[in-house]
Structure formats: C-alpha cells, structure tokens
C-alpha cells in the first residue's frame, strides 16, 4: 500500500513536471513571438527613418546643386550689370569729351569769325 502510494505520488510528480515543462515551452514560445513582434515593429520605424533620411539626403543634394546654379547665375548677372555700368560710364565720358570738343570748336569758330571780321574791316 505504501509502495503503491509512493508510485502514485511519483507518477503525479512526473505528470506535473511534464505539464510544467509543456507550460514552460509554451511561455518561451510566446516570449519569442512577442520579442519578434516587437523587433518587427521597431524595424518598421527604423526602416521608415532610413527611407526618410535617404529622401532628405537626396533633397539636400538637389538643394545644394540648385543653390550652386543660382550662385553662378547671380555672378553672371553681376558681371553683366558691371559691364553695362562700365559701358554707361564710357558713354558718359564720350559725351563729356564731345561737349568739351564742341565748346573748343565754338571758341575757335568765334575767334576765327572775329579775326575774319577784323581783317574785313581792315581791308575796307
């Protein structure tokens, strides 16, 4: 009777250990599934951040190229305006020179008229 009770107790113990082992394996499997789900969820965010970073890098590169082109165009415009300004200054210089020559020619013409009139008066 005692030996049958011991055997019965040992059989229950084995059954409980098997049940406990099965529950442990089930808990480990559930923990692995949870861990995998969390990693997958985090990976989605990381992947999205990586894609966003790639887009930002591409847009920054495009912006840099646009800024460089704009700078070149601005420099060309500045050079063009500088040349135009120089041409206007030269034109103004030519105008002043022409006015000075015109004044000199008038002075000479007036002087020649006076000399001519004086020589006409002397001849009469």
Topology, please?
Layout: H1 2-123
What does this protein structure show overall?
This is Biogenesis of lysosome-related organelles complex 1 subunit 1. Belongs to the BLOC1S1 family. It comes from Diabrotica balteata. One of its GO terms (cellular component) is BLOC-1 complex. Pfam families: GCN5L1. The chain is mainly α and 124 residues long. The protein is 98% helix and 0% strand. The chain has 1 helix and no strands. The chain has one helix at residues 2-123. The protein is rod-shaped.
Provide a count of the helices.
1
Number of DSSP E strands: 0
Helix content: over 70%
Shape: rod-shaped
Poorly predicted ranges: none
Organism: Diabrotica balteata
Pfam family, one: GCN5L1
GO cellular component, one term: BLOC-1 complex
Family: Belongs to the BLOC1S1 family.
List descriptors.
mainly alpha, 1 helix, 98% helix, BLOC1S1, Biogenesis of lysosome-related organelles complex 1 subunit 1
Short description:
98% of the residues lie in helices and 0% in strands. It has one helix spanning 2-123.
